[in-house]
Amino acid sequence: MGHDLANPVLSLRDLTVEIKTRRGLLKPVDGVSFDIAPGEILGIVGESGAGKSMTGNAVIGLLDPPARIAGGEVRLAGQRIDTLSSEEMRRLRGKQIGMIFQDPLTSLNPLLRIGDQLTETIRTHLDLGANAARERAIAALDEVGIPAAEERINSYPHEFSGGMRQRAVIALTLCAEPSLVIADEPTTALDVSVQAQIIALLKRLCRQRGVAVMLITHDIGVIAEAADRIAVMYAGRMAEIGDVAEVLRRPRHPYADGLLSSTPAASAGQARLRQIPGAMPRLTALPEGCAFAARCERAQDRCRQGAAPRLEADNGRTACWFPIQHGEVEA
Amino acid sequence: MSYVTVKDLSRRFDVSKPWLNRVIERRKKAFLTAVDDVSFEIPEKGVYGLVGESGSGKSTIGRMLVGLLPPSEGSVQIGGIDPFDQHDPDAQAHLRSDVQMIFQDPYASLNPRWRVRDIIVEPVVARGGETRGLAEQLLEQVGLSAEDAAKFPHEFSGGQRQRICIARALSSRPKLIVCDEPTSALDVSVQAQVLNLMSDLREELGLTYLFISHDLTVVRHMCDRIGVLYLGRIVEEADSEQLFAAPKHPYTQMLLEVAPRIDEIGREVPEPVGEIPDPINRPPGCAYAQRCPIAQPICSSQRPEFRKLGGTSVACHFAD
Asked: Are A225 and B276 an interchain contact pair (Cβ–Cβ within 8 Å)?
């Protein structure tokens, strides 16, 4: 795709998050590794509880205790950030890592004008005077497509519609010029037509500024349109990662395959949807071996014993002992 | 013969400020029109879909159909009975067990302090019916096990809870089930299981569904006929396949165009312009005129009639 993966903005190696509970040690994120290059959008999909958001929160250091990073490395532009103190991490957030959440109202202070929130952020992270910051705030609102930015800068969040609020949040995220943006379900609360606007905006801004984006969503359609690469997570582990066209057209992990074909769009014109039997195992009751084995029609004895398969089982692409071989089917 | 007939249905909500504020601030009363002159029919054993974005009035229509909300104007007839006609209490009671509803959030629609058995048989108990073994039989019918009857809702996942909601809806042997976004809170693989279950039950029990959703692909999969709502009005109605093959209304065309697809990777979506207008101060004429690529001056002054175009009905001056 032409992205420089040799010098990634974000690099995770074997990231593991643990939660100590009375029922034992849970691992909502278990040995997750990936890189994101400048200007690249990595889409992370998975069902609720698969560990997508937990991975994002671990990267920005916003894990709620008792959850904690128990192992692995997080590097931002080559520098380790998982070992930083909370004060150092606080300075990094907003400046180098921006965040966009599902509900724009939780990211905006309802008592402050949009403009004040923007100028505050700009002046915290950049060395600018009040007037310069205000001009920059107007430019930021203009860039995210808010009409009449000079007047709207004096509005309060409740005066904006849902789509406009999410645009304001994107302006807020990008005004300190971060190198990495973590977008956690940024369009889930929005209508289809507004969602299309926000995705197009996000794509355009990232391409222009070379920002690396970690796009967390449960909607594969959004990923197909926006992402360069896709990572599929299951029960806290990476199931498959690869180029978006490659994974969506020829998924190699049985779970990725099942997920794709159970969408109503994939089985258009058929009376029944293809369904994956059962449900994702709870973290308190993860089986030995592959977490998907109980639902998998390809599973064999090897899948149910020993350590879970990792991405290395299939040249870094699929965490499966018996991945689907598309070439063989056609040959 | 249609089982459900909705005719010229409208619903307005009074959103005025309190009386004293209106006097001091010299403001008029304000009304929000949630549903505006909606008519459709559902044949027996048919599945009718209502799609639209938030604020389009889909849920309000569903609530009026099950009798949770009286209409401002127009009428609803289910099996020839008007749920708001107070003259015939027997027919009303009958209708109550013929019509059931499944809600979006399976966490909010089950009482956490009740056992699953009591939740499921509640619609029958309320009318003094026989319930022995009913919960167990229904649980097996929706793909859970009979032992689950003694458990509490928190012991189940989202998809299993939605199955319990379906079992409860089935307990009074209804003819019509109003499904308001039944799978929106569920993950894709679980959504497939629940949709398949609903299709199976429809065939086994001869159910009629009103299926309300914002997800076009789900509606396309489930429904025979679809009405597209925009700001409280049906702007286009057609058979499912026809609607997706040849959408006539510019709004439907836009919706189909921008909905995310998994088969076209890296697609550049033409950005839709504008947003849904304020339902309190509705624009005169066509509500979609400001966002419409083919709008003419007439569109913002004259309200388009709902007219037939082949098998499609469309509320647009220029659709062809």
From this structure: no
